[in-house]
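Q: Could you fold this chain for me?
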Amino acid sequence: MSQIATLKAVVLPTRSAVSNLGLVLGGTVFLAAMAQISLPVPGSPVPITGQTLGALLLGSAYGASLGFSTFAFYIAAGVAGAPIFADQSAGIERLTGATGGYLVGMLLASWITGALAGRKWDQKIATVIPTMLIGTTVIFTFGLFWLHQSTGQSWSWTLEKGLQPFIIGEVLKIAIASTALPTVWRFVSKR
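A: Sure. Below is the predicted structure, expressed as structure tokens.
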């Protein structure tokens, strides 16, 4: 079986528990920092954050297993009380409340983008754009269904408050990830 071709596997080809722990902790710090890039959406319990970009990049760079594990650790740390969610918040209510679906979606998206990156989908713009679109679709699918259920609001309200304000930002995040990942791969390949 050939080795999965992720940035993590190329940059750190040697696997150890210590290196994986370091990557999980470093990835958690990265996700926490991205979550602090936060803008409130008037009338919505869901803020615009850099967290979705963080999940897409982390999954792609780390691969499915480590990306998923890192995002799961991030969620567990936030639920346990570490102030690492948006606006330095923490607690189980972030997972069980209106924003929980977005977190679950990011967890799954980190695995999916990592699995696609392992098949080299993050190395060329023609394949990284669909990878990021798939990841973003997963995030918002879970987020919107969860938001609708947790608030009891109509679907039109859910789409107005949980999707529409995010579209431009998500397009920008997809553009950032879709140019950054192939650029990093070109740099890494030259080494």
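A (continued): Residues 7-190 form a domain with the Arp2/3 complex 21 kDa subunit ARPC3 fold (CATH 1.10.1760.20).
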